[in-house]
Amino acid sequence: MQDMGNRLSLDFFLRDVLEVAPEILGKKLVRQFDDGHIEAYRITETEAYRGGDDLACHASKGRTPRTDVMFQEGGKVYVYLIYGMYWMLNFVTGPEGNASAVLIRGIEGCSGPGKVGRKLQLDKSFYGENLIRSSRIWIEEAEPVPNIQTAPRIGVDYAGPQWAGKLWRFYI
DNA sequence: CGCAAGATTGGC
DNA sequence: CCAATCTTGCGT
To answer: What phi, psi does A98 have (nearest 5°)?
Structure first.
């Protein structure tokens, strides 16, 4: 059995995160679990984290072991553990050196980034996973979504009003 | 080496 | 309102 859909290519991710984050809405997030079965989920909510200037972005603190993948070429997975129990799923965007990523906050039938990570059974091993080549997680093309909504990002007040106020959360 | 805080969630 | 649970970054 092979992919039924059309997997997104590298080019899709090599753009500004503010273009990718809203455009990824509606696309299919596909996961092949350890037992071999495959499930696809429609992406419904995202947030953009944009490089070194964005104080809400982890990469604003510099290139560390944790943020390293964000500085790499787009199309890779950035996962990190928050509050000791939730794996946050992000997709790296932009060319090498541009440390940006899209946080997946919601998929169809599952609202909240912590719940997304749990549902997809993510863990540290997904750090750096290549979405173009991976056989356990990737994204497939879908019809563009009309009427995309925007709002301030959640839980980033620590970055100050300048950044917490940006309407960089996108949802259907 | 110690420690505070975190892109959250669910229960009281 | 607050505990759960543990990695990370930074200060001592």
So the answer is: -95, 100
